[in-house]
UniProtKB/TrEMBL annotation, chains A, B:
Residues 3-57 form the HTH lacI-type domain. The keyword Transcription regulation applies. It comes from Streptomyces resistomycificus. SUPFAM superfamilies: lambda repressor-like DNA-binding domains, Periplasmic binding protein-like I. Keywords: DNA-binding, Transcription, Transcription regulation. This is LacI family transcriptional regulator. PROSITE patterns: HTH_LACI_1, HTH_LACI_2.
Length: 339, 339
DNA sequence: CTGTTAGCGCCTTCAA
DNA sequence: TTGAAGGCGCTAACAG
């Protein structure tokens, strides 16, 4: 059907090897022949079959990217940036959307990327078995989430510092009843919610504020979950005057819940998010900003470097800067408290 | 390094052909042998090399998905849904993020998907040359954007009807100065902005409202662009009392601009969006809802069907339902008009 | 600088 | 029901 390397070779009157060398820019081909080959290849619309060349060379020029939810802003943004780095370097991206436990399980048992990719970027946090499965691929591994783990290059942020800056901000404003909307750690083996929770507890403790379990609710890292969680918190006998949400999407859900209850941020309740979602500014959300796209790009670059220099010891952990962005959803508590 | 089909064959004491047949569930293998092969394969962690099998069979079990901006909510959501359909059916997804003209050009000249995919789902609208390039791949083609085009199955919405419902809603509320924030059609060869504009002009005409060019501004389909566009409109000698934005992201930018000008929707200006973005509800945005994920899923399904039934004539155009969702950013104009 | 010779790992006839 | 042989299209030695 489509032209093969032999068609080109025949048309030019050289051997297939020469065509192969010429088209891949390898040395050992006269300029004259190289030009003729390029011309004929273009005219025939020849593109080397990736299957055949990777079978022969062992290189796939493909990167596997594992994502929990492509549609979620954070992951979409990381993926976008990473893909650009990969494609610029001549690599294709094989995308695996592993949101549900079933797809995830199927992926890790069948491991369809085996012999198919030169490296893997995981935007989800593999548990120990999954990590081992990925390591068994024998290719460079990186992730933008979770803590350090053997065999992986991790590009991330200081979750503790980020959380501390958010909660301290609320404390400094004078809040004493500070709630938290966290994300389920559930099947994701995600340490982020836990680390952020610990930091939250520590800041409360250092401020001499007693922790109240009724001030914590799970928001599942979604807008809807955030709304539910805020609704829960508002139903407490003594609701919080401020809330730290572990993600902007949950914070936005919280804002929606407030609106539904005819309450306002920051007048009735202050709200801080985490991420600096592209729409955080639209709703005026105070939040902890992290460089999302940059994390994806950096992880991609580190992976490519490992591919280029197979010998070198890759960096284990790269920390990106975070900063608190003050907007309009936080203020001192009302003199008399809500209501 | 990793186990090959021969390793499995040897370990079981059968030939490679039998292993191949057994593992792919083809007939002609006794149950007893099949079970033994399955066991050994699992134990050895054997996965067939995709490169080798597609080289031999001609099937890649891979779908190419072309996306202009993975990080944009609309595309991320479509991709998410499509990927789920593909992976459930046993296909992998090769992702191409073709936002910039350069990446796009490189993609269409080199066409790296040649011989690499069984089908292509394009979330961007190819121009005529690009369409021809894709057709030259000789695989089923689908898209979720733009109008009907030869060789493609199109899953979309009725842009005209959607726009009409939005603009008529504003007219019915009593607005006469109705602005529009549109998206650049620029290098994307996107007919959507044009169709929506035509529908907008038609509704104005049918309502006997004279069109005022100063009431149109370009928002580039981004939040920032929407903000700029709204700012522009507000600077007009007679600013609009209502604005139709061609996407929710631009509408949200418009809301931000209003806030910056200490104006409110709908008190000072009514705003309608298009898409029903997941956060539209958070900001109370009235909008034209379209089934975004469903479009991706449906397009994916239609592509798979073409792969299953190579003979059948694929549907050319599938229309998905839209509906106007009334929220809190639209209301009748103020008795005296703004200011 | 160029051609020849072997595979890469699997699937698909065709025989048995 | 199974095995043997050949080839998918390309790349990597090795010659020349």
């Amino acid at each position: 059907m489509t032209a093969s390397i032999n068609d080109v070779a025949q048309a030019v009157g050289v051997s297939a090897s020469t065509v192969s060398r010429a088209l891949r820019g390898r040395p050992g081909v006269s300029d004259e022949v190289r030009d003729r080959i390029a011309a004929v290849a273009a005219q025939l619309g020849y593109t080397a079959s990736r299957s055949a060349s990777s079978l022969a060379s062992g290189r796939t020029y493909t990167i596997g990217v594992l994502v929990p939810y492509v549609g979620r802003w954070f992951f979409g943004t990381v993926l976008d940036a990473a893909e650009k780095v990969f494609s610029t370097a001549g690599y294709d991206v094989l995308l695996y959307n592993l949101g549900s436990p079933e797809t995830r399980k199927r992926f890790f048992t069948k491991l369809p990327v085996r012999k198919r990719v030169d490296a893997v970027l995981s935007l989800l946090i593999p548990d120990d078995d999954e990590s081992a499965a990925l390591r068994s691929l024998g290719v460079p591994l990186a992730t933008t989430v979770g803590g350090t783990r053997p065999g992986f290059t991790v590009v991330g942020i200081d979750d503790r510092a980020g959380t501390e800056s958010a909660v301290r901000h609320l404390v400094n404003l004078g809040h004493r009843r500070i709630g938290m909307i966290s994300g389920a750690s559930g099947p994701l083996h995600w340490t982020t919610p836990i680390e952020r929770r610990n930091a939250y507890l520590d800041v409360l403790a250092e401020a001499g504020i007693e922790h109240d379990a009724a001030l914590e609710a799970d928001g599942d890292y979604t807008v809807e979950g955030g709304e539910r969680a805020m609704t829960e918190l508002l139903a407490a006998s003594r609701p919080p005057t401020a809330v730290f949400a572990q993600s902007d999407e949950m914070a936005m859900g919280a804002l929606r819940a407030l609106r539904r209850h005819r309450l306002k941020a920051p007048d009735d309740v202050s709200v801080v998010g985490f991420d600096d979602h592209e729409l955080a500014d639209v709703v005026g959300l105070t939040t902890v900003a992290q460089p999302v796209a940059e994390q994806g790009a950096e992880a991609a670059r580190l992976l490519l470097r490992q591919l280029d220099e197979p010998g070198a010891e890759p960096p284990r952990h790269v920390q990106m800067p975070i900063r608190l962005v003050l907007r309009e959803t936080t203020a001192p508590p009302r003199p008399r408290g809500p209501q």
